[in-house]
Design brief:
Oligomer: single chain
CATH superfamily: Decaprenyl diphosphate synthase-like
Bound molecules: 3-methylbut-3-enyl trihydrogen diphosphate, magnesium ion
Pfam family, one: Prenyltransf
Radius of gyration: 19 Å
Strand order of the largest sheet: 3-4-2-1-5-6
Organism: Flavobacterium microcysteis
Number of strands: 6
Number of helices: 9
Structural class: alpha/beta
Binding site for substrate: 22-26, 34, 38, 66-68, 70, 72, 189, 195-197
Function: Catalyzes the condensation of isopentenyl diphosphate (IPP) with allylic pyrophosphates generating different type of terpenoids.
Number of domains: 1
CATH architecture: 3-Layer(aba) Sandwich
Shape: globular
CATH topology: Undecaprenyl pyrophosphate synthetase
Family: Belongs to the UPP synthase family.
């Protein structure tokens, strides 16, 4: 594919995060139920995961289910949980073949026991893989993550394990669910929505944002390449002047 040759392999995002949105609207456009959109969304997940691993992206984080998504109709929540369990069963092979390690962020305890069990197994079976870390944000909310970090830091301060003065960015990073991940370099959101929806608020402080109209089940290699090419054309200044960067 020609477009692939225009990607600079030395300037890939170290951490790519994606808000996979638009499954419901995709199904509706086809006169189908929302569940059909979610099923087709899992195919786009597989393509994206494989493409990122082949490109050489070290960390991919996918927003799969938010703390707010628990408020959807029970039938839809149940469908999403079943799809998650089935995908984990089916994708273990893909993860193993591509040397991908599975990681999760979010409130694990809120997930159904069967999903927890399947996740634990895949995490344990892929723990030594080192080409790419695939993080699934499941039952994830950034505010909940920050609250949980504040609570554990407070307990440590109370027990004299850390002093208030020692609290810095690194201490906060270590207490977030994403403790072993670098900051997000590129955040993609599909489906034309321009919002963050409680995703990785701290971690995207300096991320480049990319929005596309494409609905998640239609997201293909080409769409990913376009996002990366857009990222590579940008000048990341981190507060400095353009002259300082050059
Ligand atoms: C994203 O698609 C999947 C989840 C949030 C679980 P949606 O289900 O939000 O689809 P739309 O936004 O209603 O089209
Ligand atoms: C964000 O999508 C969550 C996921 C993609 C898992 P939503 O569809 O739930 O977000 P809102 O409600 O449009 O903000
Ligand atoms: Mg949505």
């Amino acid at each position: 594919m020609d477009i692939l040759n225009t990607i600079n392999k030395d300037n890939l995002p170290k951490h790519l995060a994606i808000i996979m949105d638009g499954n419901g609207r995709w199904a509706k456009q086809k006169g189908m139920l929302r569940a059909f959109g979610h099923e087709n969304g899992t195919k786009a997940v597989r393509t994206t995961v494989e493409t990122c691993a082949k490109l050489g992206i070290e960390n991919l984080t996918l927003y799969a289910f938010s703390t707010e998504n628990w408020n959807r109709p029970k039938l839809e929540v149940d469908t999403l949980m079943k799809l998650l369990i089935n995908s984990l069963k089916n994708e273990l092979k893909t993860l193993t073949e591509n040397n991908i390690k599975l990681n999760i962020i979010g409130n694990f305890e809120k997930l159904p026991a069967s999903a927890q069990k399947e996740l634990s197994q895949v995490i344990s079976k892929t723990k030594d893989n080192n080409r790419m870390t695939l993080t699934l944000a499941l039952s994830y909310g950034s505010r909940e993550e920050i609250i949980s970090a504040v609570k554990s830091i407070s307990t440590k301060v109370k027990n004299n394990i850390i002093s208030t003065d020692a609290i810095d960015e690194s201490i906060i990073n270590q207490h977030l669910y994403t403790q072993n991940l670098p900051d997000v370099d590129l955040l993609i959101r599909t489906s034309g929505e321009h919002r963050i929806s409680n995703f990785l608020l701290w971690q995207i402080a300096y991320a480049e944002l990319y929005f596309t109209e494409v609905l998640w089940p239609d997201f293909r290699e080409k769409d990913l390449y376009e996002a990366i090419i857009s990222y590579q054309k940008r000048e990341r200044r981190f507060g400095k002047t353009s002259e300082q960067i050059k």
